[in-house]
Design brief:
By secondary structure, this protein is mainly alpha-helical. Helix content is about 50%, strand content about 10%. A three-stranded antiparallel sheet has the order 2-1-3. The longest helix has 23 residues. It binds fe (ii) ion (FE2).
Length: about 220
């Protein structure tokens, strides 16, 4: 969750170098994804919000959750572009070249409640990715009860509107992997699972639980 950020939105900094992954993503793939595709979404989002002061003090979560607040003229673009920014914030944070932080006991317990074991979760996540035949994303999300589940989204749609907050996610648009993996999506997903940043997922899960308690 990036609830404290609002217009003008900035790109989230990467916590790793563009050439930091040895066998998951190469410099060129990551560089195009981050410096061109993600950057273009951020710029377009700011452009859309430039003339809409009523949305400028809202976080991206708030904007995407409250579609009724979106001026009709820019609504479709805002869902598309805002979703592009939001989802990329999650996916770039979901991996690390140094996955030394383990899953927290709290998140592990929630995953085991739904998937019986961490290994089963990995298999279910991988299957969800392989069965996702559109451009889109697969996320592990937290619901309003603190339970977790896997959710697929199409295009740049997010899970925010359904009150489901992503804890980690993978980008399944071809721009995320095709240069390196070509049609080997399975190899891309297998490698993603080796580099999950549980430091981020643990922190997001804790933030979700805190937000639920406040309600
Ligand atoms: Fe992407």
């Amino acid at each position: 969750m990036f609830i404290d950020k609002h217009y003008p939105f900035e790109m989230i900094p990467l916590s790793y170098s563009l050439s930091g992954f040895s066998d998951f993503l190469d410099f060129q793939t990551l560089s195009i994804h981050y410096n061109q595709i993600y950057q273009a979404y951020v710029e377009k989002l700011n452009q859309l919000l430039k003339d809409n002061p009523s949305l400028q003090n809202l976080s991206l979560d708030e904007i995407l959750f409250n579609e009724a607040l979106m001026p009709k003229k820019i609504k479709d673009d805002l869902i598309e572009v805002g979703g592009g920014v939001y989802n990329h914030q999650i996916i770039f944070n979901s991996v690390t070249p140094n996955p030394h932080v383990s899953i927290s006991p709290l998140l592990k317990k929630a995953i085991e409640k739904e998937y019986q074991s961490l290994n089963n979760f990995y298999q279910a996540f991988k299957q969800a990715c392989l069965n996702h035949h559109e451009c889109g994303f697969v996320f592990l999300v937290c619901d309003q009860n603190g339970d977790v589940k896997i959710r697929k989204t199409n295009g740049n749609l997010t899970t925010v509107k359904d009150n489901l907050y992503p804890l980690l996610g993978i980008d399944l648009f071809e721009h995320a992997y095709f240069l390196k993996y070509k049609h080997q999506k399975k190899a891309y997903v297998d490698n993603f699972l080796k580099y999950i940043c549980f430091e981020f997922a643990n922190q997001e899960y804790e933030a979700c639980l805190k937000a639920i308690k406040k309600q």
